[in-house]
Amino acid sequence: MEFQQYLRILRRYWRSTLAVVLACVAVAALVTLLQKPTYSSTSSVFISVDSGGTAGELSQGATYAERQVKSYVEVVTSALVLEPVIRELGLDTTPSALRKSLMVSTPTATSVIQIEAQDQDPVLASQLANAVAESQQAAVAELAPPSAEGSGLVSATVVDQAPVPTGPTAPRPTVNLALGVVLGLMLGLAQAVIRSMADTHVRTVADIESLTEAPVLATIGHLTTTAGRASDSSGQQRSNGEAYRRLRTNVGFLGLGGERRPSFVMTSAIPDEGKTETVVSLARVLAQAGESVLLVDADLRRPSVAARMRLDAELGLSDVLAGRAVLADLVIPVGPGRLDVLPAGSVPPNPSEMLGSDAMAQAIASMERDYNYVLFDAPPLLPVTDAVVLSAQTGGAILVTRSGVVKRAHVEEAIGILESSRASLLGVVLNDVTETSPDVYQGYYVEARTK
């Protein structure tokens, strides 16, 4: 995974990542507050060997002493050393319990044993380290093998007395909080990556590009609109207005290099992805640019264009296809420019058959002769076949995909349905993208790719 991908994941899940970091810092702070102050003090014992006066004997003695140190390190925490310490200091404990308060170590390639004692009482920590060092000195004298002269071959000398500590060694607030931040960042990034890998929703342009070679015509930002009505482009946020103008520009390039038809279908994989809002806004910006546009509500099951544009019409497309009315009589001019709307009309019992009929083909041919653009708002692809039937009779389909709502499998299935029919997928519109997503700004470069 590349660094840019991690940045995108963090940008998407920054809230949960920040929550994990704050939680880890809070735990570290709580542990620090609950932890009782602990003091530590260290004494040092030097192990020497009586090995004679020659250089060779001294070298052999130093090597022997260094080897013996490893054994005497184990002796420090034995009952032989600790029981006298308990008696001397009058401690109410056992050697096994006292052993937990001691840390014994030896620097590499030395004959020195360092004894660190820890306790909540700084004076007792110092007394304990010194008492253990003195007891260790006596134990070495007892355990050392005698020399030829009868004296101990190995001796121990206390070289550093343990001082009374002036400050606690634990807790360490700065270190604990720093560890909390580091652990929080690691856990936060981990949960963000796991959530990203487990997330099957389409969210970014990269997700769409992994599913189809069709171009992403525009990315539309998240926008709250009045219920039942599409927002005028003049009232939209500036970024969304620019996004619809980019969509208008890119739609103008569709079909170049092949048979270009002025009609196309706006659909989606599942309901509630914003296809109607998108096609209404696109129709308006096309009309504002001086194009003659006919917006047709071809969703004969759940029509919504008329309600969104606040048009009062009972007759429409279904009535034209049934031969009960003439197309020119039912078209409603709404502006700006030459923007006409053909409502869905009466809800028929057989929408798919009507949209695939010869009457529909004749109506589309008539619409294409009279308008520069004919936009059809069609039902979603997965629930019904209406959009596929209609797309096969027009210049193709534009798929509207709502970021964070539709799953990759649904989009992939919808694309497969279009590809298995005679319909062409002209492009994809990524809708409802949050403003924090980089895809809001990637649409600026879509024009160049489409050209």
Low-confidence stretches: 53-59, 226-236, 440-451
**Distance N terminus to C terminus?**
31 Å
* The first-level CATH class name of the largest domain: Alpha Beta
CATH topology title of the largest domain: Rossmann fold
Beta-strand content bin: 15-25%
The CATH H-level superfamily of the largest domain is: P-loop containing nucleotide triphosphate hydrolases
Average of pLDDT = 85
* Main sheet: strands, sense, barrel: 8 strands, mixed
Q: How many helical stretches?
A: 19
Major sheet strand order = 5-12-11-6-10-7-9-8
**Architecture per CATH nomenclature, i.e. the level-2 architecture of the largest domain:** 3-Layer(aba) Sandwich
State the share of residues found in helices, binned by percent.
Answer: 40-55%
Secondary-structure-based class equals alpha/beta
Shape type: rod-shaped
Tally of DSSP β-strands:
12
Number of domains: 3
